[in-house]
C-alpha cells in the first residue's frame, strides 16, 4: 500500500484555527480522528463542514465520539517533551531534542509536512458567523456615533419574518403608498443594455426620545447658537418633520430597480425611478438640492459658512431663521406671522408633520420656559447606563481622577474591544450637551485599538459620574438690554500624553450665559515649550472663532470689534501680537501664525486671565474637584 510520488497526498480535514505554538494551521484528520498541524493547506472557502450530515453518513467521523477518545489516547504519536506536555494530552513518545522538532516543522510537502498530535477530540461545535467589527485608530466621529446605535436582536432581517408581524406589514404598505403617491417610480420594461439595481426591505425601528439615537452629522455649534440667541431674545423655537424626505429629490440619470419583494405586479417588468429612493448614493444630494431650491424661491438666504442654515429677512428688522438636518428642521424668529406663513408653505410643498414647540431634536431634550432654554440628554444618558449594566453603579463627583494619566499599558490584560468602542461612541454623542465630559471622553477614545482593564476602569468612572449627573445640561438664560457677545477661552496641557508627549488643546466659546462650542483634542505635533503648546491651541481656537463670527453675522448679530479669547500664558499672547523670540519660535509651522494675522486685523484678541478662571481648563486636564465644579458652573451647566 505504499504511495508513489505521483499518488494523491492530500487529506480531507476540518480547519480548527491557528496553532498557538507553531506558525501553522490546526486541522482535524477525519480518517484518523487526530489533531494535526500543517502549513501546506488548501481551503475550500465556498464550503462549510456539515457536522450533522457527516454524522449520519459516517459515525466514525464524530469528534465527540467516546470510543474515538480511547482509541486516540492509545496512539503513540506526540511532538512535546514530558516537561512541555499540557494537561489532558497523553504522550507515549517524544522527539529526542528540539532540533528534531524544528527539522520536522521545516520539511516539504513531499516529506509529509504534517505533525500529528494525540489530543483528545474536542466537542462538536457547529460553524458560526462572526459579528462585524471596527479596527484602526483613525475613526472619525461619524463612525463613533454610529457605534452608539448598535442594539442586537431587535429589528427583523428578512421579509419572511416581517410578514408574520401585522405592525411591519402595515409599515411596508405605508412605505409603498408613500412612494407611489409621490410618483417616485413607474413600471416599465428594462431597455436593452441597461442595468437594474436590486432592492431589499430594511426593517429598522426609528426610536423616539425614549429610545436610541441614530447616526447624526448636524453641526451642534450652529443649533446651540440659535438656541442661545432665541433664549436671550425670548423667541420661541418650533420644529417640523418632512415625511419621506429622500423621495422628493429629482434624479438626472435613468435608474432602474427591481420590484420589491411581496409587491411584484408583473414579473418581467422593472421600476424606472423619476425621483430619489432610499439607499441611492444620489438621494441625499438630490433632496438637499430640492429643499435648497425651495428656500431660494421663498427668498431665504443660505449662510455661506453653514449650508444647513437659511435666513429670511423682512421689513423693520424682522427675521426668520431655519436650521435643517435632512428631514428634521427647527425655525424661530421675531415675527409670528412670518413663521406661520413659512409653516403653511412647507406643508403645501411637502408632506409635513408639525411637532409644535421644539422639545426633542436629534436626541437632545429641549425645555423652553420664561427663564430661558435648557438642553440636556437625560433619557439618552440613562439608556447608556442601562445598556452597559451600570444603572445601579455608585456615583462619583468627577469624570476622571485628579492627576490621572492614562498610557497604552502594553503589558495589561486586554478586554472586549467592541464593547469599549460602543461605550466611547455612546459617550461621544452625549457631548452635544455635556462639555464637562469632553476631556475624559477624548482621553479614553485614544485607546480603542487595544483597551485594557486600566482603560475600562477609566471609562466606567465616566459612567459612574454620569449616574450622578443624569439631569445636568446647559441653560441659555433670557437676558435683555445686553449685546450678544461671543467670548472664547483657550488652553493646553503641555506634553500631557505620556505615550507620544503631545499636548492637548481645548477651547470653549460662550454666547450669552452658556457654552455653544467646545473642543478637547490632541495636538497634531510635538511642541517644544508651553508657549508653543498654548500658541497652537489658540490658533485652533481662532479658526473656530472666525467661523462662529460669520454664522452670527448671518443671524444679524455682528460682533462689533474683536472677539476676546482668554489665555493664561503671557508668552503666547505676546507672540500673537509681536514676532518676538524669533530664535525660539522660527520652527513653528506657518499655519499657526494665522492667529497673528487675525490679531493684527482686529478680528481676535488674546487676553490674559488667571488659571483658576480659565473655562477651557476642564478640556485639557483632570482637575481637583473644587476647581472642576467651579468651572463647570461657569460653562452654564446646571440641573433644571
From TrEMBL:
Q: Where does this protein have compositionally biased stretches of type Polar residues?
A: 91-100
Retroviral polymerase SH3-like domain boundaries: 2-56
Please list where the region (Disordered) is annotated: 81-112
Domain called Reverse transcriptase Ty1/copia-type: residue spans = 219-401
Q: Which domain of life is it from?
A: Eukaryota
Among Pfam families, the record links this protein to: RVT_2 (PF07727), SH3_retrovirus (PF25597)
Q: What is this protein called?
A: Copia-type polyprotein
Q: What is the scientific name of the source organism?
A: Trifolium medium
Amino acid at each position: 500500500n505504499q504511495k508513489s510520488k505521483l499518488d494523491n497526498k492530500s487529506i480531507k480535514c476540518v480547519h480548527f484555527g491557528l496553532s498557538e505554538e507553531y506558525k501553522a494551521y490546526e486541522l482535524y484528520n477525519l480518517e484518523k480522528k487526530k489533531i494535526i498541524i500543517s502549513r501546506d493547506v488548501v481551503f475550500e472557502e465556498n464550503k462549510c463542514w456539515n457536522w450533522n450530515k457527516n454524522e449520519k453518513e459516517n459515525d466514525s467521523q464524530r469528534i465527540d465520539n467516546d470510543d474515538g477518545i480511547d482509541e486516540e489516547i492509545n496512539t503513540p504519536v506526540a511532538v512535546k517533551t514530558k516537561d512541555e506536555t499540557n494537561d489532558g494530552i497523553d504522550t507515549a513518545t517524544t522527539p529526542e531534542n528540539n532540533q528534531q522538532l524544528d527539522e520536522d516543522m521545516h520539511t516539504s510537502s513531499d516529506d509529509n509536512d504534517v505533525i500529528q498530535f494525540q489530543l483528545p477530540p474536542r466537542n462538536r461545535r457547529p460553524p458560526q458567523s462572526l459579528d462585524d467589527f471596527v479596527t484602526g485608530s483613525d475613526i472619525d466621529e461619524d463612525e463613533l456615533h454610529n457605534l452608539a446605535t448598535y442594539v442586537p436582536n431587535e429589528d427583523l432581517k428578512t421579509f419572511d419574518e416581517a410578514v408574520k408581524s401585522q405592525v411591519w406589514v402595515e409599515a411596508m404598505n405605508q412605505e409603498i403608498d408613500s412612494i407611489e403617491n409621490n410618483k417616485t417610480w413607474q413600471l416599465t420594461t428594462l431597455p436593452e443594455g441597461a442595468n437594474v439595481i436590486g432592492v431589499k426591505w430594511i426593517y429598522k425601528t426609528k426610536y423616539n426620545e425614549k429610545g436610541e439615537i441614530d447616526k447624526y452629522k448636524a453641526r451642534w455649534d450652529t443649533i446651540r447658537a440659535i438656541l442661545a440667541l432665541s433664549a436671550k431674545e425670548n423667541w420661541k423655537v418650533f420644529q417640523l418633520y418632512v415625511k419621506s424626505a429622500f423621495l422628493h429629490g429629482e434624479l438626472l440619470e435613468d435608474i432602474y430597480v427591481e420590484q420589491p419583494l411581496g409587491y411584484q405586479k408583473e414579473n418581467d417588468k422593472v421600476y424606472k425611478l423619476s425621483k430619489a429612493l432610499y439607499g441611492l448614493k444620489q438621494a441625499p444630494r438630490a433632496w438637499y438640492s430640492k429643499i435648497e431650491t425651495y428656500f431660494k424661491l421663498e427668498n431665504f438666504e443660505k449662510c455661506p459658512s453653514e449650508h444647513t442654515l437659511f435666513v429670511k429677512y423682512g421689513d423693520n428688522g424682522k427675521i426668520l431663521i431655519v436650521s435643517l438636518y435632512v428631514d428634521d428642521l427647527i425655525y424661530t424668529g421675531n415675527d409670528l406671522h412670518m413663521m406661520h406663513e413659512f409653516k403653511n408653505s412647507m406643508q403645501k410643498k411637502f408632506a409635513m408633520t408639525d411637532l409644535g414647540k421644539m422639545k426633542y431634536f436629534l436626541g437632545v431634550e429641549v425645555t423652553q420656559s420664561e427663564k430661558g432654554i435648557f438642553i440636556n440628554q437625560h433619557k439618552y444618558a440613562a439608556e447608556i447606563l442601562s445598556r452597559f449594566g451600570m444603572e445601579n453603579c455608585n456615583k462619583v463627583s468627577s469624570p476622571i481622577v485628579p492627576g490621572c494619566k492614562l498610557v497604552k499599558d502594553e503589558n495589561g490584560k486586554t478586554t472586549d474591544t467592541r464593547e469599549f468602542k460602543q461605550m466611547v461612541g455612546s459617550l461621544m454623542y452625549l457631548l452635544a450637551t455635556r462639555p464637562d465630559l469632553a476631556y475624559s471622553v477624548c482621553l479614553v477614545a485614544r485607546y480603542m485599538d487595544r483597551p485594557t482593564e486600566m482603560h475600562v476602569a477609566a471609562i466606567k468612572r465616566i459612567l459612574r459620574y454620569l449616574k450622578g449627573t443624569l439631569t445636568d445640561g446647559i441653560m441659555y438664560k433670557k437676558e435683555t438690554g445686553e449685546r450678544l457677545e461671543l467670548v472664547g477661552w483657550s488652553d493646553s496641557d503641555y506634553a500631557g500624553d505620556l505615550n507620544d508627549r503631545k499636548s492637548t488643546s481645548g477651547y470653549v466659546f460662550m454666547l450669552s450665559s452658556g457654552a455653544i462650542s467646545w473642543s478637547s483634542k490632541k495636538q497634531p505635533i510635538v511642541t517644544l515649550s508651553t508657549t508653543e503648546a498654548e500658541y497652537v491651541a489658540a490658533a485652533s481656537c481662532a479658526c473656530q472663532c472666525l467661523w462662529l463670527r460669520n454664522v452670527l453675522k448671518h443671524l444679524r448679530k455682528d460682533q462689533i470689534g474683536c472677539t476676546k479669547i482668554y489665555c493664561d500664558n503671557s508668552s503666547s499672547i505676546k507672540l500673537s501680537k509681536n514676532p518676538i523670540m524669533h530664535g525660539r519660535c522660527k520652527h513653528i509651522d506657518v499655519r499657526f501664525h494665522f492667529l497673528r494675522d487675525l490679531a493684527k486685523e482686529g478680528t481676535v484678541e488674546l487676553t490674559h486671565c488667571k488659571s483658576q478662571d480659565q473655562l477651557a481648563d476642564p478640556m485639557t486636564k483632570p482637575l481637583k474637584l473644587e476647581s472642576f465644579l467651579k468651572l463647570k458652573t461657569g460653562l452654564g451647566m446646571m440641573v433644571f
